[in-house]
Design goal:
This protein is an alpha/beta fold and about 475 residues long. The chain has 16 helices and 15 strands. The strands form four sheets. It has a six-stranded mixed sheet, with helices on both faces. A hairpin with a 2-residue loop joins strand 4 and strand 5. The radius of gyration is 33 Å and the shape is elongated. The protein starts with 10 loop residues before the first strand and ends with a helix. Bound molecules: adenosine-5'-diphosphate and magnesium ion (MG). Magnesium ion binds next to helix 1. The site of magnesium ion (MG) has 4 residues, from helix 1.
Length: about 475
């Protein structure tokens, strides 16, 4: 336990107080939680354990005190709440699954909205692989084609060879690539397409995100991030740099020409405007005053003005690369992002053997299954710390084991954990440190053997005598 303490704590809790009206629930708690620790909290009901966890996860605002997580004070109202949500996972006694969402929906919701750290990693990788992409999409000529395998539109599209790169978006009905017939058909079509287009072109296979067959996912991502892809992409990039440079040079030429036009027009327009202003006359008609100018000068002025605006506008337009019109790089990244989140959701479900429940609703699951889903839902954010508030208290006895086993497995991965539990056997086995919380304070703490075998305070002795039968 002590080897943790050489490092900066992951969570530093300083003088934490929480009152509900006159009721003081947390009374000056100062505690450090170190990376990799499994802190078990035990104590009598009403002692403040849940409130303590809820403060750590910013579900409650402490009355005073600080919670420093990775150098950031979570009690500071200015802190980005998503920062906590991404990094601190919480599992509740009552599961708290979203009943209106499927199991998959439950797991994917937060990473999709808030983004998890793997997602961040993916974005980084994508950036790497798509340093090309971004540059290419912006500066180079990328065509996005919708797959229409029946009508052979792709093959007959004579514009194909105008693009440097083709992004192929498959039709939904070809999503099930485990169907060998469809798969074969698809491969054939893609090969046909490859024959039709010049060898220098790249074909990116885009699968639809509606695909539930998780076995396909690796393939796409591999393809998008593969060395082969990068090498091809970079080779193409070099080729088309010259082309883009030429376009840029041409743009500069046009820009210079238009600047000259502007230079000529501006003084001329000014003179005309001055002359025109001098012709200003007030005319009274039926008791009303009208302003009139020389019509000839007015139309001359309008023409010059239009010419000037056009020249200015061309320069504006030229600042945007000509080729940008073919491009939507966000489109690509967004899809890959969702695919990755889904892929991870399936990995998690496979890990707990519940992949077949992906499209089921929580109401159809047993308590043990619900809680395991709730746990992987929290894991899907790739948190740095997991908080468990009596995760097995609402379960039928025969389901306690499967949930505790999952928590143990997660503990073995090195995850930092804070667990409130009444399962004393589990606490002894998994805990690296045990806190005894009573009446809003941490009344005693130590290693599991210290706390369970050699309790110091009468309160702890009394508590243990009740729970350890
Ligand atoms: P534990 O989890 O150790 O059983 P809790 O943190 O749930 O304890 O509760 C500690 C005390 O705070 C209890 O007396 C409880 O009634 C009170 N409490 C908890 N939440 C609230 C709330 N939102 N409003 C008022 N009192 C609360
Ligand atoms: Mg509680």
């Amino acid at each position: 336990m002590n080897d943790f303490k050489d490092k900066e704590p992951l969570i530093r809790i300083n003088n934490l107080y929480k009152n509900f009206g006159d009721l003081q629930v947390l009374n000056d708690i100062t505690e450090n939680i170190y990376e990799g620790e499994k802190v078990v909290i035990i104590g009598p009901s009403g002692g403040g354990k849940s409130t303590f966890l809820r403060c750590l996860n910013v579900l409650e605002d402490p009355t005073s005190g600080q919670i420093i997580f990775e150098g950031k004070d979570l009690t500071d109202f200015k802190i980005d709440i998503n920062y906590c949500r991404r990094n601190i996972g919480m599992v509740f006694q009552q599961f708290n699954l979203f009943e209106n969402l499927t199991v998959l929906g439950n797991i994917m919701l937060a990473p999709t909205i808030v983004g998890n750290s793997v997602d961040k990693e993916t974005r980084k990788n994508n950036k790497e692989a798509s340093k090309y992409n971004k540059e290419a999409y912006i500066n180079y000529n990328i065509g996005i084609i919708k797959d229409n395998l029946e009508s052979k539109i792709i093959i007959e599209d004579d514009k194909i060879n105008n693009y440097n790169t083709l992004l192929l978006e498959l039709e939904k009905k070809y999503k099930n690539t485990s169907d060998s017939k469809k798969q074969a058909n698809l491969e054939k079509r893609i090969n046909n397409l490859k024959e039709k287009i010049e060898t220098s072109k790249i074909l990116i296979k885009e699968y639809t995100t509606n695909m539930d067959n998780s076995s396909c996912y690796d393939k796409i991502i591999e393809y998008a991030n593969s060395e082969e892809f990068k090498i091809k992409a970079n080779a193409n990039l070099e080729k088309f740099k010259a082309k883009v440079e030429a376009i840029k040079a041409k743009n500069e030429e046009i820009k210079a020409k238009n600047l000259l036009i502007i230079k000529e027009i501006e003084p001329e327009l000014k003179i005309v405007e001055e002359q025109w202003a001098k012709t200003r006359k007030e005319i009274e008609r039926r008791g009303k005053i009208f302003i009139a100018y020389d019509k000839k000068l007015s139309s001359k002025k309008t023409k010059l003005q239009t010419k000037l605006e056009n020249a200015e506008r061309t320069i504006d337009r030229l600042s945007v690369p000509e080729l940008e019109k073919y491009i939507d790089y966000k489109y690509y990244n967004k899809k890959v992002r969702i695919i990755n989140i889904k892929k991870q959701a399936f990995e998690l479900l496979n890990r707990i053997g519940l992949a077949d429940k992906a499209n089921k609703y929580p109401s159809t699951l047993s308590g043990g299954q619900k809680q395991r889903i709730a746990i992987v839902r929290a894991l899907a954010m790739n948190p740095k710390v997991m908080l468990f508030d009596e995760p097995t208290s609402a379960l039928d006895p025969e389901m306690v084991g499967e949930v505790l086993q999952l928590i143990k497995d997660i503990a073995d991965t090195g995850m930092t954990m804070v667990i409130v539990t009444h399962e004393m056997g589990f606490a002894k086995e998994v805990g690296t440190r045990v806190l005894f919380m009573d009446r809003g304070v941490i009344a005693e703490q130590g290693t599991p053997s210290e706390v369970f075998n050699n309790p110091q305070s009468p309160r702890l002795q009394e508590f243990l005598s009740k729970v350890l039968i």
